[in-house]
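User: I'm writing a short methods note and want a consistent example. For ATP phosphoribosyltransferase, I'll paste the sequence; you return only the structure tokens, no commentary, since I'll be parsing the reply automatically.
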Amino acid sequence: MAVAAELISLQSLEGRLLFAVPKKGRLLSASLNLLEGADIQFRRENRLDIALVKNLPIALVFLPAADIPTFVGEGRVDLGITGFDQVQEHDAGVRALARARRNSGEELSPEESAKPQGCETVMELGFGACRLQVQVPAKGGYAEGKDLIGKNIGTSFVHLAEEYFARLELEKDGLEGVSNGDGGYHLGARKLRTKIIELSGSVEAACALGVADGIVDLVESGETMKAAGLKAIDTVVDSSAILIKSKAPSNPAMVDLIAARIGGVITAQRYVLCQYNIPRTRLADASKITPGKRAPTITSLDEEGWVAVSVMVEKKRIAPAMDELMLVGATDILVLDIHNTRGS
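Assistant:
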């Protein structure tokens, strides 16, 4: 294994686009399936966090999902898959750092000023849905977020929690809607009355152990929260997995290629191809049922007055669509899987 690690470390990454992928957790499995569907071929050696793609000039870098927005935002890697919640937390941290530097009178160096900062969302990926929520003991007396002002809050999303409670404190002080002008709330020279306690794991246990009065944590099914005796009283961020890119990628054409491939996989996962025959006189009715992503493909049959229709339909709608098509006179209805697509 040491030999393999040495080989990877000696392998030049020059000319390869760096693509960050979650190394573990709830986003890893779905991300790997997405890469497979996009025909990104690689072999990840055990315990190594860099894998060279065999069929494209790309290197995959396996990183904690929370770190990916930082690496992409600083231009260290070109592309990344992470959660929208992690991007929002990173951006809130950037805002907090910028305020601290402004307040101290520190100026950016010419190199820092010239370098594009931050990341751009390329597309939503359709998996990893969750919510960053304010949670409190189910049998306690807290009913809404403002009830926790001045209390202890445990979270791994420190910056988002600080902005959330800064907004609540501003509203309580009669300054509703006052923001810092770059997407977040802050208290200016005043100190946040609510104490934000940074926790890296097992956040849901903080209330039961007396560490915090409430928490700000991710919720998927809600079962873990219920088991810990907690209930949600507000949502800070609705999140799912997204593809992000650097504002100055090393190879924009390759970024566009990978985005097109991933977009094709996502479309193929959402849609099926529906084909049917129908009298031309009923075509308008059928088109209302299956309008397609852009428009149906219509072909004349070798039978007077009949046409063949080929159209993409969302998987979740295909069963009722078939029922409705039969009612307007469609016959020979077929549904085919789509393995990949290109184009919007």
